[in-house]
Structures are given as structure tokens and as C-alpha cells.
Amino acid sequence: MTALASQPASQAEAADAPALPAAGSSFYTAMRLLPAEQRDAMYAVYAFCRAVDDVADDGGAREVRAAELDRWRADIDALYAGRPVPRVQALVGPVRQFGLRREDFQAVIDGMAMDAEADIVAPDSATLDLYCDRVASAVGRLSVRIFGLPEEPGVKLAHHLGRALQLTNILRDIDEDAERGRLYLPAEPLAAIGLSHPTPESALAHPRLGEVCARLLDEAQGHYDAAWAIMHAESRRATKAPRIMGAAYHLILVGLRKRGWAAPRTRVKPGKLALIGVLLRHAIV
């Protein structure tokens, strides 16, 4: 389960045209403000992430999804061996120019495989953290190299901001994920409220659901705090895009805290004025 927009995945040969983020999304806005080479590189990374995400979510039977993700693994290997197939051709320039690493692309595929192999239901905290690293922080590691951050703070930023954004997604999307048979809330706090073998339905109907969500929300907030400490110490130009993404997503987290967890849960979405405020604070360097 990622924040990427849905687009039908091909089970045989993906379309060569890159997918673009939805106009008006915080990702689209942040990327549009980048210099052209960085923007094009981020769109190529986005298209890859969206394609493998679509396989994991809507790629047909599980064995078909697994086979298609294996094809993506082989295509990434071919890219780094100098034999790119058409659907990864857009990544050739970004890989060369920004030093993007093969293991980060493969980590993203491994994260999607976690969703494709079986519906994730109440993973333990270590498994949830691994999932967040693969589907979010690995994307962050690719991104910070494109943004031009130094290696050590860039990797740390990817670690914290990726987890902050993904935990925010999980909290925002608990009802939508339950409709897919998925529950990303971790097992340990669910067990603490008496759910040793939870289902999505039993967890969302539990009167103490808010305690579990509040714990995950506090964890997400800790990652936001760590990410902001890193970004404050680095160049505003190199951190412009992650600042916008972090601030926009944090609005969702604040909205979730205010809304609470009692059913029926309305979907939290930042207002236009709040997002304009984010741009005014962080887009000008």
C-alpha cells in the first residue's frame, strides 16, 4: 500500500510512456518546482514506482504478480548491465547523472512483493519497519541523490521522512486498506488491546482502536521531527522538495489527530489555503 496513484498494470509488456503524478498533488507541486533535469529524473523514478505498485495492487492473480515483479527485477539488472529494455529507458540518464543505486530500485520491488505475496495483516513492528523502508525510504534514497543532498544526511533524511510519510499513509488509509483485506497497524499494540489474531474488520471495530492509532501517530511525528532537524541543517535549495512533501503530509497527520478514530471516519485532506501556506514557506529559496 503506497501513496502512488492507481493506473492499470500490464501483465506482459508495460507501456513505454512514463506515468505522471496527479496534477495538484503535493508530489506534483514539489517536483514541478525542481530544475528540469531533476524534475525529469524524479518523474522517471515516479513512473517506475507507480508501475510496480500497480502490479502489487492490481496485477491479477498472486502468481502473475510475482512473475511480473520478477520481470521488473530482471529489467533493473539489465539496466545496470547496460542493456536497458524500453520500459526502463527513462531511467538510464538519471542513473548515470545522479548515481542512483540498483539496490534501492530492487528494495522498492521487494516492498511491492510483500503486498503481492499475501495481504499484510497486523505485521510485527520489525516487519512493518522493513516494509516502510522498502516502499518509502528506498524511494527517498533515490530522491535525495537527485535533489543533491550529501550522502550521510541524505540517507538519514530518506530513513526518517520516508517512514513519516508512509506511516501517515497507513493511518489515513486504514478503511480503504481494510476493504482490500489489509491491515498495516502493528501487531504489538493490537495485542495490547486484546487483539492477538486481528482481522481488518475486528481491528477497525474495536473500541480501543484509537490507542493503537495514537501510538503509530506519535511514531510518525518522531520521524517528522527527525527529518526536519536534518533539513534545517542542510541547504534550502537541496531540501526544497522534501520540505514541501513533509509539510504537506504533516497537515494530514495533524488532521488525523484532530479528527480522531471513531467511526464513521471521514477522509482527511488538507485544504487549498493550507497547501498554499506550505508553498509560501518552503518553495522560495
List the helices and strands and how they pair.
Blueprint: H1 26-32, H2 36-58, H3 62-80, H4 92-98, H5 102-117, H6 125-147, H7 151-172, H8 174-179, H9 187-192, H10 200-205, H11 209-232, H12 240-259, H13 272-282
Helix pairs in contact: 1-12, 2-3, 2-5, 2-6, 3-5, 5-6, 6-7, 7-11, 7-12, 11-12, 12-13
Q: What is the rounded Rg?
A: 19 Å
Average pLDDT figure: 91
The coarse overall form would be: globular
Number of strands: 0
> How would you characterize the largest beta sheet?
none
Query: How many separate structural domains?
Result: 1
According to CATH, what is the class? Mainly Alpha
Fraction of residues in H or I helices: 55-70%
User: Percent of residues in beta strands?
Assistant: under 5%
- The helix/strand order is HHHHHHHHHHHHH
Low-confidence stretches: 1-18
What is the CATH topology? Farnesyl Diphosphate Synthase
The class by helix and strand makeup works out as mainly alpha
CATH architecture: Orthogonal Bundle
Number of H/I helices: 13
Quick structural summary:
This protein has helices spanning 26-32, 36-58, 62-80, 92-98, 102-117, 125-147, 151-172, 174-179, 187-192, 200-205, 209-232, 240-259, 272-282.
